[in-house]
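To illustrate the input format used throughout this study, we show a single complete record. The first block contains the structure-token representation of the backbone; no residue identities are included at this stage. The design step must infer an amino acid for every position from geometry alone.
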């Protein structure tokens, strides 16, 4: 099957455009581009404001119009939740009507449960990528069906294992990054931390570790939790620790390539770790906490891991990580984190389920 017609379902909350709201949005953007380059027809169903060059079709995210009685009912959920629910409901009903005429496969790359819950209503195969540890709504959508018709992939062995009670046979297709874009930099500069500024990513712990190691740190990423940023991060900023803002991909690549090392400080079980892959591709070794899938990506030649939450142990590793060969970091990214490998794996899977 030379040319596939793929419906790629993305986030209804955050646009698939720069600067990216998080790793999921960045991964979706890169994957859509890679599939386009292979000659496939990809329609991206995503939040308003997504990159028009991807041929994105906006998910029908509409303001929820409810009666006063419905809004005052004790069961009324968050308005954003309602809007997302109806956006995915509208999409799945549309695909159930005649999706098989327009597409060969649906790839659900969102975190929402409805593409899984309603997959049986479609006359077209559905692939869903598991990007997070188990969540109650998505797990219930799987286990509520006697035989869930969805083909599942997971972004790491760790994530596949976490989902095993509900999804016994998820295939591992790791997220990939474009090696032609994320190029090696000279290094030698400040430490860097990048990602969403939220408690579970732990930027405040990166600041503590960098200060304990006596190294300056630059922090980049969207402030996704304003209260956390104001309470736990902003008070720690100073001449040696600077927040440089929410950068586009070119600015971020330059920052990563100039750093002596990248700090990764998850306070949760990281399902994959796209920021690790990006740093390695830029030739920058990684120093982080050993949580989730980080140990799958890193080897002792390109990064070192401290026990979860142990700031002092992390600080002691920083000088050792800075001495690692940047060429080994780049080679690890080429071997393990390549976008072409991920796009090829998804293409093969699409062809398999479409047959």
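Output of the design step:
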């Amino acid at each position: 099957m030379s040319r596939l017609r793929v419906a790629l379902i993305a986030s209804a909350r955050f646009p698939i455009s720069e600067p990216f709201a998080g790793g999921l949005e960045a991964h979706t953007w890169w994957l859509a581009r890679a599939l386009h380059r292979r000659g496939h027809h990809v329609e991206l169903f995503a939040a308003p404001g997504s990159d028009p060059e991807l041929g994105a079709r906006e998910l029908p995210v509409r303001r929820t119009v409810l009666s006063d009685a419905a809004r005052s009912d004790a069961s009324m959920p968050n308005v954003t939740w309602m809007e997302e629910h109806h956006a995915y409901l509208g999409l799945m009903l549309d695909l159930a009507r005649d999706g098989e005429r327009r597409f060969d496969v649906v790839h659900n790359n969102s975190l929402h449960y409805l593409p899984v819950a309603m997959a049986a209503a479609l006359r077209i195969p559905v692939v869903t990528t598991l990007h997070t540890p188990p969540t109650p709504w998505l797990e219930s959508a799987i286990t509520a069906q006697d035989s869930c018709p969805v083909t599942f992939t997971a972004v790491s062995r760790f994530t596949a294992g976490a989902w095993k009670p509900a999804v016994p046979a998820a295939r591992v297709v790791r997220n990939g990054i474009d090696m032609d874009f994320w190029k090696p930099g000279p290094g030698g500069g400040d430490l860097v931390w990048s990602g969403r500024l939220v408690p579970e990513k732990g930027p405040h712990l990166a600041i503590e570790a960098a200060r304990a190691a006596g190294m300056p740190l630059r922090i980049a990423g969207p402030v996704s939790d304003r209260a956390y940023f104001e309470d736990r991060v902003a008070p720690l900023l100073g001449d040696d620790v600077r927040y440089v803002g929410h950068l586009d991909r070119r600015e971020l690549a330059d920052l990563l390539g100039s750093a002596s090392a990248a700090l990764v400080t998850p306070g949760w079980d990281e399902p994959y770790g796209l920021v690790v892959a990006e740093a390695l591709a830029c030739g920058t070794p990684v120093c982080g906490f050993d949580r989730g899938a980080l140990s799958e990506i890193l080897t002792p030649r390109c990064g070192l891991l401290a026990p979860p939450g142990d700031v002092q142990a992390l600080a002691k590793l920083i000088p050792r990580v800075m001495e690692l060969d940047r060429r080994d970091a780049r080679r690890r990214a080429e071997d393990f984190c390549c976008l072409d490998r991920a796009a090829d794996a998804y293409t093969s899977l699409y062809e398999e389920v479409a047959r």
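Structural context for interpreting the output: Residues 79-102 form the longest helix (24 residues). The domain at 5-176+339-354 is CATH 3.40.50.2000 (Rossmann fold).
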